[in-house]
Structure formats: structure tokens, C-alpha cells
């Protein structure tokens, strides 16, 4: 079954959707959209470093994405404005990554595939890495679900419950770095944040509980992956952007169907 490239692409897309759904819900609740964008942009620098050092692209992207996320988390508590800090780090990391790639002589690299994804070129080995990352992210979020919800609702309530909000922030940081590392092959660095945010935002008007929102986001993300791949095949369009376009249409549809819950 895995000999068919469309089957591998579908499994990869569904996997990324499953990882991005619960994490994306917390990104939406905590208003961390730009945080996810900055981490994703940093992954390009990780790709360049991994190719230069001849190590796994997944390992390089994970290391740099995690370093970026930890840097932002550390500096935010020291008087730096979050939006300014993220703007500087996101665009700086992307620029340094693109410049670093240009110095890689003798290494063939399709830069567009890392910027916008190349889901149709996913191999069986890539699937193993992707689903390993998916299981790690889902397991991590499930393990800390209650504590993450409490610290998201109120830091004071978290402290009163014996929960350290900074530790839960680190859990989200680690999960975000893993998701970026496994998703860069599927949708690319420039579209990873979209797959985190759009399905979760689309699921928000349809959900009454946090658990419902995470599940609905996974369903919307998975359906977007399948429908986007089908559209890309039929219309001969880029697969990664097509998936995001379908997710955007799903977001528009849920807002039109349930306008009263748009601020929920």
C-alpha cells in the first residue's frame, strides 16, 4: 500500500493534522500565532545546518526550532515586547537560513520544497519520522492536558493548584518544535503556522469544550489534507498551499454557519 505516493502523502497529511490540532488549539487560546510562525521560520536555518553537517534534516530542524522557541520564552520574561521580539527573531532566522543555504556548495537542495512543502515526495522513512513525532506530540499534550488548560486559563489559578505555568510553557515549546520539525516536509516552513492555527480556529465555533475543539480541529485538518491533495492532483496545483486553501475555506464555512460563536 505504501508504494503509492498518494497514499504516503495522505498518511503524512493526516499525521501532521493530528499533531497540529491539539497544539493549534493552545496556540489559538494563548494567542501564540506569531510564536508558531517564528519557530517555523527558524526551521529553515536548521535545514541548512543539518545539510552542512550531514545530519538528519529532522534533527537539525528540531534543534533550531527548539532553540528559537526557548529563546523567545526566556527573553519574553525580561521586558522585551513579545510582538517586536518575535518579528525580529522570525525574519532574522529565515534570512540567515536562506543565506546559509546559498553557501552549501555541492549540495542539491530544492529550497521551495522546504518553504512550501513537498508532501508528494514523502518516503516511507519520512512517514516513520512524521508519525513518531505525531505520537510524541499527542502523548505529551494528553499527559499534560489538565495542567496546560489550567495554566492557559489563569496563571494565578495554576499556581494555586500547584502547577508551574513556566513548565507548561516549556511543554508547549517542545511540542511546537517537534511539530515544526515533522511538518516542514509536508507543508513547508511558511505554511506550518497556517496548519496550526486555521483548523483550530475553524473548529472553535463548533465546540463547547476544549476537548471537542481539539478533536474537531484534528478532523478539519485531516479532511483539509485529503481534500487539498485531491484538489492538487486534479487541478495540478502545489499540494501544500492547496491543503491550506481548503483549511481556509473550512474556516470561512464554520464562521458563516455559526457566526454567533465567533468570539468563543
Top keywords for this entry?
ABC transporter involved in vitamin B12 uptake, BtuC; 264 residues; mainly alpha
Topology:
Elements: H1 5-29, H2 33-53, H3 57-76, H4 82-102, H5 111-116, H6 124-143, H7 145-153, H8 155-160, H9 165-183, H10 192-203, H11 210-235, H12 239-257
Helix pairs in contact: 1-6, 1-9, 1-10, 1-11, 2-3, 2-4, 2-9, 2-10, 3-4, 3-9, 6-9, 7-9, 10-11, 10-12, 11-12
Could you list the spans in which at least 5 consecutive residues all have pLDDT below 50? Answer: none
**Superfamily (CATH H level) name:** ABC transporter involved in vitamin B12 uptake, BtuC
| CATH-defined architecture | Orthogonal Bundle
CATH C-level category: Mainly Alpha
What is the average per-residue confidence, as pLDDT, rounded to a whole number?
A: 84
Classify the helix fraction into a percent range. Answer: over 70%
What is the β-strand count? 0
Task: Count helical runs.
Answer: 12
User: Strand percentage, roughly?
Assistant: under 5%
Structural class: mainly alpha
The radius of gyration is: 18 Å
Overall number of structural domains: 1
Q: Please name the CATH topology.
A: ABC transporter involved in vitamin B12 uptake, BtuC
Largest sheet: none
**Inertia-based shape:** globular
Q: State the order of secondary-structure elements, H for helix, E for strand.
A: HHHHHHHHHHHH
Distance between the termini: 42 Å
